[in-house]
Amino acid sequence: MEGITEGINSMAISEPQKKNRIQVSNTKRSIFFYVNLAKRYMQQYNEVELSALGMAISTVVTVAEILKNNGFAVEKKIRTLTVDMRDEPGARPIPKAKIEVVMGKTEKFDELMAAEAEQNGDNEE
């Protein structure tokens, strides 16, 4: 058992999970869930990375465009690539498209967030 634990502890992870990365799915959540989550991440980290594979790429593009068109964010970096995915261990790799979009806060981000919070507070009363 100790050998297994040591092996796991010594494994090198090629890409550690970034704290400001949102891995987008097109089936699990609505677009506005990701928009609001991205705003919260930008408040905390000043930028957010939206990442998706395959059919979820259009969701990332939509979220990025909503943030950009509403004045909350600007695109800092867009990266497209193809990654090999395997359905089962030992199976042939299947190439999948991947996108990574890094969005940063605009100068008026905090002002827009304050106005949105004020508007939401008025709706609750």
UniProtKB/TrEMBL annotation:
<protein>
    <recommendedName>
        <fullName>DNA/RNA-binding protein Alba-like domain-containing protein</fullName>
    </recommendedName>
</protein>
<dbReference type="Pfam" id="PF01918">
    <property type="entry name" value="Alba"/>
</dbReference>
<dbReference type="GO" id="GO:0003723">
    <property type="term" value="F:RNA binding"/>
</dbReference>
<dbReference type="InterPro" id="IPR036882">
    <property type="entry name" value="Alba-like_dom_sf"/>
</dbReference>
<dbReference type="GO" id="GO:0005634">
    <property type="term" value="C:nucleus"/>
</dbReference>
<dbReference type="InterPro" id="IPR014560">
    <property type="entry name" value="UCP030333_Alba"/>
</dbReference>
<dbReference type="InterPro" id="IPR002775">
    <property type="entry name" value="DNA/RNA-bd_Alba-like"/>
</dbReference>
<feature type="domain" description="DNA/RNA-binding protein Alba-like">
    <location>
        <begin position="20"/>
        <end position="81"/>
    </location>
</feature>
